[in-house]
Structures are given as C-alpha cells and as structure tokens.
Amino acid sequence: MIEARALTRSFKTREGVVGAVRGVDIDVGPGEIVGFLGPNGAGKTTTQRMLTTLLAPSAGSARVAGHDLVREPVEVRRRIGYVAQSGGTEPEARVGEELVDHGRLYGLSESEAAARGAALLERLDLHDSWARLVKTLSGGQRRRLDIALGLIHEPPLLFLDEPTSGLDPQARANLWAHIRSLRDDHGVTIFLTTHYLEEADALCDRILVIDEGLIVAVGAPEELKRGLAGDLVALTARDAGDAARAAVVLEARSPASTPEVEGILVRFHLPSAAEGLPEVFWALEEADISPIGVEVHRPTLDDVFLSLTGRALRDEPAVA
Amino acid sequence: MSPAAQTWLIFRRAMRLSLRNPVWVIIGIVQPILYLALFGPLLERVASTPGFPGGSSWQVFVPGLLVQLGIFGAAFVGFGLVAEMRAGVVERMRVTPASRVALLGGRVLRDVVVLLVQGALLVLGAFAFGLRAPIGGVLLGLAVVAVLGAAFASASYAAALRLGTEDALASLLNTLAVPLLLLSGILLPMSLAPGWLETVSDANPLKHVVDGVRALFLGETASATVGWAVVAVLGLVGAGLALGTRTFGRESG
After folding, report:
1. Which of A58, A64, A90, A158 to probe the B interface (max B CBs under 10 A)?
2. Domains and CATH numbers, chain A
3. N or C: which terminus of chain A has fewer CB atoms within 10 Å of its end residue's CB?
C-alpha cells in the first residue's frame, strides 16, 4: 500500500536548509494498521503530508495505493483518505452537507454520496446528526465525522493524523474500536501518526519510530519491547541475608545481568518473565531460598522510546 | 466530474454558507450607502470646481464607489479563507482529486455574485439620491466591476494561503489600501490633480478602471477611456487568477 524510498523533505530557513525528513523508507502492506510514532518536530507530520500529496518531497520516491506520488498525485488522491489532526469541517455547515459535498468532489453522484454518508454516520454512531450544524457536535463526534469524510469514497488506505488527541479517555477508547473495525470488517489499511504510546500499543500491528527525521526502529509493539533488556523483576526476600544469597544464585545462573540488592529487595532483568520466572524459583528453591513476594514490570513503549532516542516522548525535541 | 461542475459545487457550498450568516454581506453594503448619504452631498458643490469632469456629481461619484466596492469588498474575502484554513477545510479539499482551479474558482464566483448584488443595491440607492445614467452604461460598468472583483478576490485568496494568519493579511491590506485608494481617483477624479500626481496615478491600472466606469456612466461605450478600462481590468483578472490558481495548486507549508 505504501512503498517509500529515501523520502526526504528539507525546508529553507534563515539558518540554511533544514532537513525535516532525512530519507525515510516506509513499507505498509494491505490490511495493516501501522503506527508512526515520534516526538513533536520529529518529522511525523511532514512525512504524512508528503504521503498524502500535500507536500512535494525534496528527494526520494514513493508509491502510495499503487501510484507514483510525484507523477500521479491525482490517482493517489482518489485512493486515499486523510483525516488531519485539526479536522476539516466547517462549523457553520450541516453534517449532511459536508458529507455530500465532499463525496461529490470525488465524483460521486449526489444520491450516492448521500447514501454513503448516511451509512457512514450510522456505522460511526452518529445517528440523527445529518441535519445538525457541525459546531453543535462534541469533540468526539466531530472527530468521527472527520473520519466519515475521509471514508466517503471508500479508499483502501486511510491516513489518520493524531486521531485521538484532545479526546477524553472514553471517547478515545470508542474511537479505537471504530478504527479497529475499519480494518477488521472493511479491510482498510491504516497509517496513523500518534504520540500516545498506549494508542500505538493498543491499535497497531507494526510501529515505525521516527526521530530527528530518521526512522530509528520498526517492528511490532511486542518485538520492540522485547528488544529492550526485557522484563524487570523485583523479588522480596525474607531477610537481607537471603536477598544477598539470592543475588549470588541469580548471577551464577546468568552472568550477563548483575542483580541489584537493596535491603530485602533483589532486582534483575529477564528476557521474558512469563517464561523465565518458574526456572528462577526452582534455582532459588534448590538453594533453600523462598522469596515472599515478586513484582514484574513489563517494558512499555515509553521505555522503548526512551532507549531509542534518549528521551521521553513528550519531551521537547533536542536542540540540533 | 468536470472542473466546471466542481466549480459550481464549491460555489454552491460557499454561497450556502454566506447566506447562512449574511451579516458580512450586509456590512459590505452599508459602507457604500454611508458614502452615498454622507459624502455624496458634499460633491454636489465640488462639481462646479474647474477641472471636474462633465456630467452630474453623482455620475462621477457612484462609479468611484462601485470600484471601491469591487476592490475592498473583494480584497477582504481572504479573511474567510484563513478561517477555512484554520478549520482544516482547505486541506481536506486539497487531498481530494478536485481541480485546484475549481477550489479557487467556486469561491471567487461566490464573491462576484455577492459583489454584483451589493453593486446593484448601491446603484439603486444612488438613483434615489439623484443619479441619472444610461442603463446600458450602468450594466456595463457593473460588469467591469465584477471582473475587477474577481481579480482582487483571487489575489486576496492567494495572499491568505501564503500568509496563513489574519494579522499578516490585515497588515498587507492596510499597507496597500491607502495608496491604491488615493492614486485611483476613486473619491475625487484625478483630473483635479496637479500634473505630477496625475502622471503618477496614470501608472495605477485602477485609475483607468475608475475613469472607464465613469465614462460608461456618462453614456460612452466605444471611447478610448473605456477601452483602457477593459484592458486594465482584464490584465488584473488574468494576473489575479494566475496567482490564485498557482497558490492553490502549490503545496502549503
């Protein structure tokens, strides 16, 4: 669905030419939900605006929905839907008018656009909103209307830019369900940018992480998390003596990871706690140590991001 | 869907939204009516000054007001586009396969229709104040003003797309408005001006448009003055539309 090679975009500023996107390769297969993750200013939006024909690449090439981005922008536009972060609805317009007009711009007949628009409102839980003014919709409803507009021409590929930013948790969960159903029930390929890690974790089959204009990691959320040191396990021993002995046992078992001892707590890493812990308990049992508690911290995408870029996702971009 | 059909679609949408909130259309017409009522009577005296063109003072003044409406009514339409950009509407339309010319043209067409309604109301009001002019000349004058409005509306949209904020657009318009107004002879005919000022104003195409519409209101149709006005207005609309479509087709940063 998307096949981008060395896609580059630089802007001229007073300080000279700045590379906002410095040669990214992106591959998205049909039916995938792919998350595009990065801090503000990393090049997420610039890349997405290139892929949606809104911005011409300075260099590189891409095929989107089967057509060349630069040579056949109109063919690409016919086959993609794009839902911008700021939305795209006129507050003073009526919901039905927006849907019909937008469908007509794709060449649908008036009746066809109206029928599809009504069906989309139904599907996105916007029943009875056809005649309402856009400005009377709630934030979540308006976001779903934006998505309905992006789907009016039944594109095989949908771009979502920060689809749930600014929504309350309930509206967000609701929108996630709708996005999943687009793929599961309608086969739409989805490319979404987000800076919410839990969103990428909950929705995406694969994640691309972009930082300072370069893709720094690609993989399924689970894969990316496993690429870290693994799960952090904290054992509580009966007393400090047991804790120290447990550390020796653990170190002998896996010399690569030195356990940390703090009072009666022993902390160490395991590639996968679910698979590794029983064996650990066995070894401790043999040494006649019985821990009285255990806590496992699974890495989050926040941890992945931190280890890849050296900073948390919500930080300001590093000064170049 | 042909570009013409798309233009019509964008026009219908823009018109529907304008009519839903017609307060700006009304404000646009109130201003020239105020000029008619509060400034027009002054001119009746001035008309006897040497150098004042022939015809009644209303035949001089009303064409000026029409051109002013065509310039300033249209020059401010960019503010509406800035609001549409902020709402994301422009970008949403730009990811559709719709013709870029249609996205601009439909909006300009709406502005021209609004302008023609305002212009017709202005002329009717002026008749009540005492304007007498041949109907053919008046209609041709309105046509010239409509084309002029299309030029300024396109330029205003282009400026709005490039500048992106109300503040920047307002500064640009304020900078351009006063010299354009003074050098076009809209309020007082340039034939009253000293030689050097008249020469400077000759370089302003708007001055020729104003002179041409005045000539039309005096009943001339095939004079050189009218010819220059037509040339000026066609040149302006060509430049305006070219600038507008280029900007609409161009990426926005």
Report:
1. A90
2. 2-225 (3.40.50.300), 229-298 (3.30.70.790)
3. C
